Each structure stands twice: as C-alpha cells, then as structure tokens.
Automatic annotation (TrEMBL):
Domain Rhodopsin positions: 38-298
Signal peptide coordinates: none
UniProt region (Disordered), positions on chain: 320-350, 383-415
A Pfam family the protein falls into: Fung_rhodopsin
Topological relation to the membrane, as annotated: Multi-pass membrane protein
Family listed: Belongs to the SAT4 family.
Biased composition (Basic and acidic residues): 406-415
Protein name as annotated: Rhodopsin domain-containing protein
Subcellular location per the Swiss-Prot or TrEMBL entry: Membrane
Amino acid sequence: MVPAGFPVTYDLPVANRPATVQGVSIAIQILAWIAVILRLWARIKLIRRPGWDDLFVVLACLSVTWGTVCVVLETFWGLGLHLFTIFEYTKSPPDQDFYAFAIYCKLLFLANVSYACSTTLIKLSILFQFRRLFDRRNHPVVNISCLVLICITIVWGLFFALVTIFGCHPIHKEWDVLVDGNCILFGSKVAAKFYPAYAAHTASNMCLDILILAIPIPSLATLKLRKRQKSGLIGVFSIGLIVVICSVIRLWLIVKTRAGSYPTQDETWYAAPIVIMSCLEVNLAILCASMPIFWPYLPRLSFHGIKVVREVIIRNETRRDRPYNTSTNDGSEPTDLSGLERTNSDTSVARLKRQDTAENLRHYYKDSHVKGLVVGDLEMQQAQTMEERDPAGKPGHTAEAWAEPLELKLKRTRT
C-alpha cells in the first residue's frame, strides 16, 4: 500500500510500508491512553489524591497524540518512499515547486516538536512520581537524586524544544525551502548540521532514561514485598528496559544512516524505522509510568457482582392511611382488627393474623415480581395450615398461627 499520487515501482520493506507505520503508531497510542485513563481512575476515583505526576503524564499523552497524528499524515506525503519518488510524481500547482515535500517537512517539523516535548514531560512525570512514592525521611538519596534530575530534565527539554521550534529564521523556512533565511541543527537541510542534532538528542535522551530507571533500584532492594508485588515491579522494569532498548535502536539507526543522509541523502526513505522506534519509545514510557499506579487496583474491577434487574421504591407510610381488607372466620363474620397496633410500616410490630398480613402486604408492593416473592410464601404457608386443620377444605380461623405477646410486668422488691 502506497499513498495515492505516488506510483511506486520498487518493493517497500515492511518498516517502510504505510500500513506498518500507521498500525504500530495507532495501536501503541491506544494502549498508552488506556494506561493513562486507568491511572487517573485510580488516583481520582479511588485514592482521591492526584498530583503533579498525573498532570505531566496527561500532558505527555496529549503531546504524543499530536505526534502520532503527524506521523500518520506523513505516510500520505512520502514517509517510507524514496525522495526522488516524491519529486517525480508530485502533482504540484504550477506556481508551487516541491509541494508534497513541503507538506512532508511541515509534518516532520511538528512531529519533532512533539517528540521533544513528550520525552521531557514523561521524564518529569516519573521523577515527580518517585518523589511521591519515596518519602524524604526514609529515602533521602532518592529524593535528592530526583531533584537534581528534575532540574537537568527541565533545562534539557527546554533547550531541545526551543532549538527544534526556532531552528530556522523565519520559522516557515523549516518546510518552505525556497524562502530566504538561515537554519541550524534540526531545521537545516545539510547533513553536517542536522545529523549531530539528532544524534545528540537521542543519546542524551537514552542516558537520562537509564539514570531515571536506576534511581529506585537501591531502595527497592531493601523493601520486603510479596510475590505478586515483586512480579509487578519486574514487569514495570521490563517495560522500562524495552524503552531504553528502543532508544538504543533509534540511536543506532540515526548513526547508521547519519539521520537519513548516508549512503545517499534520502530522508523520507530512512526515516520510517526511526519514526516507528520513536512512537514505541514514548508510548511505552507512558505505559511504564502509569502501570505502578493502577495495577494494584485492577482486582477491584469485578464484573461478577450483583446486577439490578428490577427497581423497587420503598416508602415510609403510616398504616392508618391504608385501607385493610378483612378476612372471615367462618365465612360470615369479619375478623376483629381491634387489636391492630397502628405503628409505622418500617418499624411495625402489629399483631396481624396471617391471612390479613398476606392481604395487606399487597398494598405495599406494586411490582408484581416483588409481590409474588413476599406474599406468595405467606399464601402457601396459609394454604398448608388450612389443609392440616380442615382437610375438607372448610374455612378455618387462622388467628392462632401467631402467638399473642404477653405483657411482662416487673415489680420492684426491697432487698
């Protein structure tokens, strides 16, 4: 699969195919967002103590998403193809030369800014998270190391972000090669200028990742953890190592191709594997930063709980406000209800006969399902009682089914 407008007559490696770049970048981006959402759920819903580390990881994920959109769009404007293909088959307007290459360079510029911001924000999130997990009193070395690395990361991130944004004067010369102006480092189209910038940024980024990953190791060695907790930490550090490996591979690709200028200057062709490694690196770093937060709370997400299938409204009403149906003793006289105690329904201790109770309960349950559950048992017991007392089926008195409470009088005696 190749972008429309670029008929390709040569085979594309797997890493250079648009489907590969799009599939990897979008899939890993979705995983990163799932991790961030679970992290926020744990911090806001369960712990209710969000911090600076959560803010930085959200900003990092937004920045990475911005970069992912740029990468996906780059595949439609020549990413993974030879540079001469873009120039040869570009259907440019008559008054604009290098139209497709200019759009590609603009998207590359935005993706580079995203990468510089994302790597900085992720590192700050992890460092603030370490300061939150390891208190100052028991882990002073970890806290001091984090403070030092926070300062270094801020300076490092600001420098590379500003150099990436203002690499050309004017800025739009980044993608419009016909405009007069000057460019340095990332903005330059000369290999001798942009190659050292890419190599230095990738190498320093890898070194900072290794330092950050090594900070908590001495403190974790002294902690007594359960087997499950140890397994979780091993998983987190494994992802951290994968992030470092992605940085190493990215640096190796940049050095091998001299940032797309060796053996021939063909940036669009050599950039595809580097872009894939960049997407994996930043998104896996977000996953690594978020897993320790939400992983311990995943068992709380149970899908086997009680499901509500019916809704019952319970009201507190006085029994005197409800009409009562009367039953018969022998089929001719009504039951005497003078002994009914008029109390609230929720605390009632009324001395009701079983038959009256079954009839009156019908007024309090409008839902047929609930009524059947509550009243049905009483009617069944009533029928069994009547059959035992009068096998012929004659109506009998059922008042004796409930025992009348006796009044207990206490007298004070002298001792």
